[in-house]
C-alpha cells in the first residue's frame, strides 16, 4: 500500500505513429478543415432546386406520367449521388486525380464522340445526349468541363510547381490549348453552342490564373470574335440557334414563336413582385406557360413564386459559392490548385450569369442549366465533383502558423 503522502505519476499516452489514433485524428482534421460555408451554400441551392423543380413539374402529367413527385425525388436522388461523388473526390484528392487526368480526359473525349454516333440523342435541338435507358440519359459535355480544367491545370502547372519556371512557357500554353480545343470542337459539332461558350470562358479563366502571357489572352479573345463572325457568315449554326439570337436581338420578333420562351419567362419573373405569389402558387408556373421550366428556365419559378427576395437569395447563395472558391484559389500554395479553382470559378460564374440573364432577356437563350438548382443528373454530378475538387484543395493545403 502506498504511503499517505505518496504521489502518483500519470504519463500521457503517445499513440503509435500510423496507428488507429493517427487515422482518426487525420479524418477529424480533414472534417474540420472543410469549407463549410461553401458546402452549406451548394447544398441549400440543390435542396431549394428540388422544391422549384417540384413546383414546375407536379402539374405536367404528360411529363411526369401521372406521378407529381417524380422529378422531385429524381432531383433529390441526383443531389445525393452528386454529394457522394463530392465525398469520393475529397477522399481521392485533387493531387491523386492529377495523375489520373490522362485517363479521365480520354474517357471524356470518347464519350463526346459517342454522342455523334447512333448512340446519341437529340433533346431540345441539341444532339448532346446518350440515352442509357430506363428514363436516364447522359450529357458528356458536362463532365468535359471538369476534364478540361484538370487537363490544362496539369500541363500549365507541371514545371511551375516543380520550381523549374516562374510562369508557363509559350509551348506549354499552346499544348494546353490543343488539349482543350479537341473536345470543344466535337461538342461544337453536336451542336451544343452553350457548352462551348462555357468551355471558352473556362479556358480564359485557367490561362489568367496560370500567369500565362497576356498575348495569349488577347489572341484568344480576338480569335473568338473572328470565329463568331465566320460561324455566322458561313451559316454553321442550326436554324434554332439562329432564331434564339434573333429573338435576343429583337424581343418583339415572333412573340408566339422564337421569342415565346423569353417573353413568358419575363412575364413570370415580373409577376412575382417583391415577395412572390408563394411556392406552388405561381400562375405562369401552374399554367405551364414557360417551356423547360424545370431545367433551363428554373429561375422563373423562383422569380414568380418567391419574388425578388427569394430570387435574390439564390443569387446570394451562388455568390457565397464564388466567394469561397475565390478564397480557396487565393490561399493554396500550388499553382495546380489555383488553376483548378479558377477554372471552376469561371465555369460557375459564367453559367449562372448566362442562365439567369437569359430569363431576364439580357442574354441569349443558350440552353444552360443553373448550377445546383436546375433538374438534370449530368449537370448535378459535374458541379458536385467541382465542389469536391475545391474542398480537396482547401483540405490538403499546408497549415500555416
Question: What would you note in describing this structure?
Answer:
- The chain has a three-stranded antiparallel sheet, with helices on one face.
- The chain is globular, with a radius of gyration of 24 Å.
- Helix 7 runs antiparallel to helix 8 (193-210).
- The two termini are 48 Å apart.
- The protein has helices spanning 20-32, 36-57, 61-64, 70-92, 94-115, 140-161, 170-188, 193-210, 214-234, 239-249, 260-271, 283-286, 298-305, 307-331, 335-360, 377-395, and strands at 120-123, 126-133, 136-138.
- The chain has 16 helices and three strands.
- It is mainly alpha-helical.
- Strand 2 (126-133) and strand 3 (136-138) form a beta hairpin.
List the helices and strands and how they pair.
Blueprint: H1 20-32, H2 36-57, H3 61-64, H4 70-92, H5 94-115, E1 120-123, E2 126-133, E3 136-138, H6 140-161, H7 170-188, H8 193-210, H9 214-234, H10 239-249, H11 260-271, H12 283-286, H13 298-305, H14 307-331, H15 335-360, H16 377-395
Antiparallel strand pairs: 1-2, 2-3
Helix pairs in contact: 2-4, 2-13, 2-14, 4-16, 5-6, 5-7, 6-7, 6-8, 6-15, 6-16, 7-8, 8-15, 11-13, 13-14, 14-15, 14-16, 15-16
Amino acid at each position: 500500500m502506498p504511503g499517505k503522502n505518496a504521489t502518483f505519476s500519470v504519463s500521457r499516452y503517445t499513440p503509435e505513429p500510423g496507428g488507429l489514433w493517427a487515422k482518426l485524428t487525420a479524418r477529424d482534421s480533414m472534417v474540420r478543415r472543410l469549407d463549410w460555408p461553401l458546402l452549406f451554400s451548394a447544398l441549400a441551392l440543390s435542396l431549394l432546386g428540388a422544391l422549384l423543380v417540384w413546383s414546375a413539374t407536379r402539374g405536367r402529367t404528360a411529363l411526369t406520367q401521372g406521378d407529381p413527385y417524380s422529378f422531385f425525388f429524381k432531383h433529390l436522388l441526383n443531389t445525393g449521388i452528386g454529394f457522394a461523388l463530392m465525398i469520393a473526390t475529397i477522399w481521392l484528392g485533387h493531387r491523386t486525380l492529377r495523375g489520373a487526368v490522362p485517363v479521365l480526359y480520354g474517357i471524356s473525349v470518347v464519350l463526346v464522340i459517342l454522342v455523334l454516333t447512333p448512340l446519341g440523342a437529340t433533346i431540345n435541338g441539341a444532339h448532346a445526349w446518350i440515352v442509357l435507358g430506363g428514363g436516364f440519359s447522359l450529357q458528356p459535355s458536362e463532365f468535359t468541363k471538369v476534364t478540361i480544367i484538370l487537363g490544362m491545370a496539369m500541363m500549365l502547372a507541371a514545371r511551375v510547381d516543380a520550381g523549374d519556371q516562374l510562369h508557363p512557357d509559350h509551348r506549354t500554353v499552346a499544348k494546353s490549348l490543343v488539349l482543350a480545343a479537341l473536345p470543344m470542337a466535337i461538342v461544337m459539332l453536336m451542336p451544343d453552342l452553350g457548352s462551348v461558350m462555357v468551355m471558352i470562358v473556362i479556358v480564359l479563366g485557367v490561362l489568367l490564373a496560370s500567369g500565362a502571357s497576356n498575348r495569349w489572352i488577347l489572341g484568344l479573345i480576338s480569335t473568338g470574335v473572328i470565329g463568331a463572325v465566320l460561324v455566322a457568315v458561313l451559316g454553321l449554326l442550326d436554324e434554332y440557334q439562329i432564331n434564339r439570337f434573333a429573338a435576343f436581338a429583337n424581343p418583339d420578333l415572333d412573340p408566339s414563336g422564337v421569342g415565346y420562351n423569353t417573353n413568358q419567362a419575363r412575364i413570370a419573373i415580373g409577376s412575382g413582385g417583391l415577395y412572390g405569389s408563394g411556392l406552388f402558387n405561381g400562375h405562369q408556373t401552374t399554367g405551364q406557360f414557360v417551356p423547360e421550366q424545370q431545367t433551363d428556365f428554373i429561375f422563373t419559378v423562383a422569380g414568380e413564386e418567391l419574388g425578388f427576395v427569394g430570387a435574390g437569395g439564390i443569387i446570394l447563395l451562388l455568390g457565397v459559392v464564388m466567394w469561397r472558391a475565390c478564397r480557396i484559389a487565393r490561399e493554396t500554395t500550388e499553382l495546380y490548385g489555383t488553376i483548378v479553382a479558377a477554372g471552376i470559378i469561371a465555369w460557375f460564374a459564367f453559367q449562372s450569369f448566362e442562365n439567369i440573364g437569359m430569363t431576364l432577356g439580357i442574354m441569349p437563350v443558350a440552353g444552360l442549366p443553373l448550377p445546383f438548382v436546375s433538374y438534370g443528373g449530368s449537370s448535378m454530378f459535374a458541379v458536385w465533383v467541382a465542389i469536391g475538387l475545391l474542398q480537396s484543395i482547401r483540405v490538403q493545403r499546408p497549415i500555416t502558423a
